[in-house]
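Before going further, learn to read the protein records used in this course. Taken together, the tokens spell out the fold as the letters spell out the chain. A record is reproduced here so that you can trace the correspondence yourselves:

***
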Amino acid sequence: MSEPNFKNVSNPAAFGVEWTAGNHGSRYQLVNPKGTSSLLFGVMVSGSKTWSTTPVIAPDRFLRATPETFGDFLEAARAYAA
């Protein structure tokens, strides 16, 4: 499977990426509130106007340390989406 085409949706409070997968049009996000080792996963199903979000259980499976840069976070996002 090829790597998703990540769109950087970071803001001053969080690192984040968004991508689509499959042919159904659903959008996905992975977010890390800056300064934490937490990850949040979200999905917006095609035709919906709201995100459904949940914390990632055991985020240390994807984060080696608290991300300090977008590059650090992107490494975790690639591991998560693999």
Remarks:
- The first strand starts at residue 7 and ends at 8.
- Residues 24 and 46 are 7 Å apart (CA to CA).
